[in-house]
Design brief:
With 156 residues, the chain is an alpha/beta fold. 35% of the residues lie in helices and 19% in strands. The chain is built from five helices and seven strands; from the N terminus they run H-H-E-E-E-E-E-H-E-E-H-H. Strand 1 and strand 2 form a beta hairpin. It is flat, with a radius of gyration of 17 Å.
């Protein structure tokens, strides 16, 4: 959580100082973009710890990549049950998804690449999808440990 906030603060500062636009590129999007025009849907899967994974599902067509699912934070078994057709899995937790529909991407394609982030960012800027520094916020799929502790303390 802290690392993400620090990274976004650095991006905001650079964009404001250099008067350049910002393109928001979530990690799961970047991971899917590393397999351009894959024939099968692409499902990036990141270890979220605490028995969960972060995931989504993407398809490529003539217009590019589109996200089919909201971003998820679910147990690996729940994700496996949602996969009802062959998919290519990428990410550090791809091996945790036990389903006959899973096809693991080659090891060198299972991680996001800086070039995929850059291409996706440029594509979004070209499509007029720039984000202001004020509007650039992290996407948290579950509360931080500190937030969970605050909630418990408030109940007690």
């Amino acid at each position: 959580f802290t690392g993400l906030r620090i990274g976004l603060s650095a991006i905001k500062g650079l964009a404001l100082a250099l008067a350049i636009p910002i393109a928001a590129v979530p990690t799961l999007d970047a991971m899917a973009a590393a397999l351009p025009f894959a024939e099968l849907p692409v499902c990036p899967v990141i270890d979220a710890r605490k028995g969960e994974v972060y995931a989504s599902l993407y398809r490529w067509d003539d217009d590019g990549m589109r996200r089919e699912w909201d971003y998820l934070a679910v147990p690996p078994e729940t994700l496996a049950a949602r996969l009802i057709e062959p998919v290519v899995l990428v990410g550090d937790a791809a091996h945790l998804i036990a389903t006959p529909y899973a096809r693991l991407a080659p090891a060198h394609r299972r991680v996001s690449s800086p070039s995929a982030v850059g291409v996706l960012g440029l594509t979004r800027l070209a499509a007029g999808e720039a984000v202001s520094a004020a509007d650039l916020v992290p996407i948290y799929l579950r509360p931080s440990e500190a937030e969970l502790k605050r909630r418990v303390a408030a109940v007690n």
